[in-house]
Design a protein that fits this description.
The structure holds two protein chains of two kinds. Chain A is built from six helices and no strands. By secondary structure, chain A is mainly α. Chain B is mostly helical. Classes of the chains: A mainly alpha, B mainly alpha.
Chain lengths: 153, 105
């Protein structure tokens, strides 16, 4: 693997995990009780989480298209654990596409709807629930990445 | 205030459409291979095609729902957020079930 592709793979993992961490911060702070003085924290965490997922999408896509399909996939398919690709990689690459859209909705809710979140606990709880789903999907994707990496060895 | 409500309303509608599109194109392209071939021919790789088209669906539906004369209020936005959350869960389970079935059949 050339240096640039290694860099993209590491960046994909790094930004993906960073996105999960940012939305986990939003989730935990929201569950405790939203401190409405912490407007900057919620806005920045969600924005950085969204940007991290976009960067993970771009770097992961670059690696997947240029290297995974040609070099890694055949090795997994011919190995002991072909289901690592046919189940986990297929699921991972497609459910990932949910994350940037859901993350953008949460980010814009904090930027444009802050006053309403403050006054309407139902909408606040819906945003927190959406953050929880983003964290859960992100974690599932990360765990699948570990399974896929293990199947190559 | 009204404009802010409409922006949020249209963004959530766009996200709902994008999630539905991802699930439909993922399953249909694996069942009906000409769709996968078309994605490969047009976008060089099927996943790139799905990525670009899902972003395009998000943008187009976002613009259309913003331009439509729909009254957006807190109640509607709350309802749409719940629909988006449920769709993410259902979409996740549908993709899981589909690829497990495809592998085991």
């Amino acid at each position: 693997m050339i240096f640039l592709l290694k860099y993209f793979l590491v960046s994909h993992i790094f930004f993906g995990l960073l996105g999960i961490i940012f939305f986990y911060a939003v989730l935990i702070s929201g569950i405790k009780q939203i401190n409405f003085q912490k407007i900057k924290f919620f806005r920045r965490s969600a924005l950085f989480g969204f940007l991290s997922f976009v960067l993970s999408w771009l770097t992961g896509g670059y690696y997947y298209v240029l290297y995974y399909g040609a070099a890694v996939k055949p090795t997994i398919i011919a190995g002991k654990y072909p289901w690592a690709h046919s189940i986990f990689m297929e699921i991972k690459e497609h459910i990932f596409l949910f994350l940037p859209f859901a993350a953008l909705v949460i980010t814009l809710m904090f930027y444009l709807f802050w006053d309403n979140l403050n006054q309407n606990p139902k909408i606040k709880n819906s945003v927190i629930a959406l953050s929880a789903i983003v964290v859960i999907i992100g974690t599932i994707i990360a765990l699948m990445g570990i399974i896929i990496s293990g199947a190559v060895r | 205030m009204e404009k802010k409500f409409r922006i949020i309303h249209s963004i959530i509608c766009a996200a709902i459409a994008a999630v539905i599109f991802v699930v439909v194109i993922t399953i249909s392209a694996n069942i009906y291979l000409p769709i996968k071939d078309w994605l490969k021919n047009v976008f060089t790789q099927h996943w790139i095609g799905k990525s670009i088209l899902s972003a395009a669906v998000f943008i187009v539906i976002g613009i259309i729902s913003f331009l439509l004369p729909i009254r957006a209020d807190e109640e509607k936005i709350g309802r749409l957020l719940k629909i988006l959350s449920w769709l993410l869960v259902v979409g996740l389970l549908a993709i899981f079930a589909f690829f497990i079935y495809e592998t085991l059949k």
